[in-house]
Design a protein that fits this description.
Elements lengths: L1 H12 L15 E6 L4 H23 L5 E5 H14 L5 E3 L7 H10 L4 E3 L30 E5 L1 E2 L10 H4 L4 E2 L2 H13 L4 E5 L17 H8 L7 E5 L8 H9 L6 E3 L7 H6 L6 H14 L4 E8 L6 H14 L3 E6 L17 H25 L4 E9 L6 E4 L5 E4 L9 E9 L3 E6 L10 H6 L1
Helix pairs in contact: 7-8, 8-10, 11-12
This protein binds 5'-deoxyadenosine (5AD) and iron/sulfur cluster.
5'-deoxyadenosine binds next to β11.
Length: about 450
């Protein structure tokens, strides 16, 4: 979502004459868009600021000015503290304020004011953001020829998992009206976008206003699939308890919906899940996965895991490992529990020693990496639909994403950027695949994997 938000900031700043550049050196303004989810992410901001201070000073030595800003969730959570730890910062503003960025820049630029804006406005910011320009490609300074784009449809979280800062930094759940999302999807398609990832902290609890009753996410996906040019749809991130029948059915019915779902379970222990205030237990998750597999037999699952949550015993951790074995995730993120100030878990008195967290994480990651490699190897010999969207490191090489989000490399003869190519997978690696073009590749590209394995 920060990538998407950075794009919107660029949209707001464009009328003021700002264009994006590749590197901070010599920039007139640098905005750090920050993440507060774990302590490491938050601490990175201060080390990055230390480096940028030198660039700012160097620019000032030549008689020019660099505006240095901190945006995002660290700004929201630590506003005043940033200004006292890094007094050379000019602007600090939270995720709900981006539509006021022009005004903030004017204040910081003209008057040299220090700007701090961490309000949650009453009015939703989306109503005040300009219509999005062609999406930002993080690999390129120009905004054109992007074939895969993010589209935020929902923001904020009311779930209050006891470990998580998001409800405090992003605020309450809010869904954009269906018509707004559709207008943005059409604009993206018109610029050449072929794949849209619908974003939200609780994207599957989307409830967008529409003339004849609210749309849930399943309905929204079906609508976005009707937009000319949109060939692939994804959504992230989902909360297991909010997967409704309509959304599960969309996995069966909407050909554009990719057979890959990031569905964080966090732990396989019911005791830990309860202490986390998750509204699912391990069996609920198992049943949900079963239903998804009935709807879309070739679906691949991904998850987030936290190890060493306060009170987690060896037996609890064994439950997580058991769940991992049973589900067979094709990809996953896993983290040591990191206490976040202001969250209920941070003040629990049963913290797990860091050494134990480290040991459990190593065991879990080893298993998850093996599962990923096993899945990648199972793709060798199959034809996969790959949306080629960026140049590779080697001359003439292109890289794209399979339906399962695997990076697939192909040499330049394999296709054109921005096109979904049929590639026969020739090699599997830990984090990527290599493919070769298939001559007569044509119909139903999104079901290619299913067809190949049938
Ligand atoms: N410590 C460790 N991991 C966390 N996450 C969220 N909060 C914490 C925390 N305090 C993880 C969860 C979530 C992902 C985005 O980050 O697994 O799904
Ligand atoms: Fe955080 Fe996700 Fe839980 Fe919301 S549902 S509190 S964003 S982990």
């Amino acid at each position: 979502m920060n990538v998407y938000d950075s794009g919107r900031m660029a949209d707001v700043l464009a009328p003021l004459g700002y264009v994006q550049v590749e590197a901070p050196d010599d920039a007139d303004m640098v905005i750090l868009n920050t993440c507060h989810i774990r302590e490491k992410a938050a601490e990175k901001v201060y080390s990055e600021l230390g480096r940028l201070k030198h660039l700012k000073n160097a620019k000032e030595d030549t008689g020019e000015r660099m505006i240095l800003a901190v945006a995002g969730c660290v700004a929201q959570a630590e506003g005043e503290e940033i200004l006292s730890r890094a007094p050379y910062v000019d602007m600090v503003f939270g995720p709900q304020t981006y539509h006021r960025l022009g005004e903030m820049v004017a204040r910081a630029g003209r008057a040299g004011d220090v700007v701090l804006d961490t309000d949650f406005p009453v009015e939703p910011k989306f109503d005040f953001l300009p219509a999005s320009a062609p999406p930002m490609n993080p690999n390129k300074a120009s905004g054109n020829e992007v074939s895969s784009a993010f589209l935020t449809v929902q923001e904020g979280c009311d779930k209050f998992c006891t470990f998580c800062v998001v409800p405090y930094t992003r605020g309450a759940e809010y869904s954009r009206p269906g018509a707004d999302v559709m207008a943005e999807a059409k604009r993206l398609a018109a610029t050449g976008v072929r794949e849209i990832t619908l974003l939200g902290q609780n994207v599957n609890n989307y409830q967008g206003a529409a003339p004849k009753g609210d749309w849930g996410l399943g309905r929204l996906i079906a609508e976005v699939a009707t937009v000319d040019g949109i060939e692939r749809i994804r959504y992230t991130t989902s909360y297991p308890a909010d997967m409704d029948d309509e959304l599960i059915a969309a996995h069966a019915d909407v050909n554009e919906l990719m057979p890959f779902l990031h569905l964080p379970v966090q732990s396989g222990s019911d005791v830990v899940l309860k202490a986390m205030n998750r509204r699912h237990n391990a069996d609920d998750y198992r049943r949900l996965v079963d239903r998804l597999r009935v709807a879309r037999p070739d679906i691949g699952l991904s998850s987030d895991f936290i190890v060493g949550f306060p009170g987690e015993t060896d037996a609890d951790f064994a439950e997580t490992m058991k769940l991992v074995e049973e589900i067979g995730f094709i990809q996953a993120y896993s983290f040591k529990y990191s206490p976040r100030p202001g969250t209920p878990a941070a003040v629990m008195d049963t913290h797990v020693p860091d050494k134990v967290k480290g040991e459990r994480l190593a065991i879990l990651q080893d298993r998850l990496n093996t599962q990923q490699l096993v899945f990648n190897r199972s793709c060798v010999g199959k034809v996969m639909a790959v949306l080629l969207d960026r140049p590779g490191r080697e001359p003439g090489q292109l890289v794209g994403r399979s339906p399962y989000m695997q990076a697939v490399h192909v040499d330049g003869t394999g296709g054109t950027m921005g096109v979904i190519a049929g590639l026969r997978i020739t090699e599997a690696h830990a984090n990527s695949l290599t493919g070769a073009p298939v001559e007569d590749y044509a119909d139903a590209p999104n079901r290619a994997h299913e067809r190949a394995s049938a």
